[in-house]
Amino acid sequence: MSKTHYVQASIWEEYFAACPAVTLNKNSIVAEEGATVNQIYYIESGRVKFAISTAEGNEKIMYIVNKGELIGDMWSSAGRPYFMTATTLTKCTLRTMEPKAFIQVLLSHPELTEKWIGNLSEIMEFLVDHVSELVFLDKEQIICKYIYRLSFNYGEETERGIKINTKITHQLFADLMGCSRITVSKIMSVMFKRNIITKEDGYIYISDMEQLKQILNV
């Protein structure tokens, strides 16, 4: 298991290093649903969620991006409005680049273009999977699927098992699943007792990957 996937790797760091930086507090809106974004954002530190809102005002988190990832690259380059709202989950430092400059970077570095396309493909695959999971899987299977997916993006082999090198709270799982934190806590408690996963300093460790895969039938 690799330590990180290219989605998390800081392949963009050197290209955004000289770009203007902005620091945002937790719960700040980076891009609003329906608005046109004219900047590419590189996450130098922090975590950002993408969510959609219902007519009743309820929020559904679709996916989350972390340090080293981009915001706005899919929409601003095409001049299209966002169909989700991007909000900081933590205090964040972002660096900004004009869409034309970003496209020039891609044209000048074909290897980056290949990785960027791979990144976009993974996001699209995740969104399709996410909708399918909510429709066809039960809550335990959804949590297991999230942890299993995280093991590819952020997994690191350790003596305790595969460490997920990003902190995920029960509340964040609940927000992704559209259920209560209590429901997540009950499911996680069972997984701890079965020694499928353990937790230390806020990090999840997969102790028994085979049990996890059996729950998912993979």
Uncertain stretches of 5 or more adjacent residues: 1-9
CATH architecture assignment name of the largest domain? Sandwich
Helix content: 25-40%
Proportion of strand residues: 25-35%
Quaternary organization:
single chain
Structural category is alpha+beta
Q: What's the helix-strand series? A: HEEEEEEEEHHHEEHHEEH
Number of domains: 2
CATH fold category name of the largest domain: Jelly Rolls
CATH superfamily of the largest domain: Jelly Rolls
Largest sheet geometry: 4 strands, antiparallel
Strand order of the largest sheet: 1-8-3-6
Number of helices: 7
Q: Give the CA-CA distance, first to last residue.
A: 17 Å
Radius of gyration: 18 Å
Q: Determine and state the CATH class of the largest domain.
A: Mainly Beta
Overall 3D shape: globular
Mean pLDDT over the residues: 86
Total E-strand runs = 12
What does this structure look like?
The chain has 218 residues and is of the alpha+beta class. The protein has two domains: 12-133, Sandwich (Jelly Rolls), CATH 2.60.120.10; 137-216, Winged helix-like DNA-binding domain superfamily/Winged helix DNA-binding domain (Arc Repressor Mutant, subunit A). Helix content is 39%, strand content 26%. It is built from seven helices and twelve strands. The chain has helices spanning 13-16, 99-108, 110-136, 139-154, 170-177, 181-193, 209-216; strands at residues 21-24, 29-31, 40-45, 47-53, 59-66, 70-71, 85-88, 92-97, 155-158, 161-164, 197-200, 203-206. The strands form three sheets. It has a four-stranded antiparallel beta sheet. A hairpin with a 2-residue loop joins strand 11 and strand 12 (203-206). Helix 2 packs across helix 3 (110-136), helix 4 (139-154) packs across helix 7 (209-216) and helix 5 (170-177) packs across helix 6. The longest helix is centred in the middle third of the chain and has 27 residues, at 110-136. The two termini are 17 Å apart. Mean pLDDT is 86; it is low at 1-9. One of its GO terms (cellular component) is cytosol. Residues 22-123 form the Cyclic nucleotide-binding domain. GO terms for molecular function: DNA binding; DNA-binding transcription factor activity. Residues 137-210 form the HTH crp-type domain. This is CRP-like cAMP-binding protein.
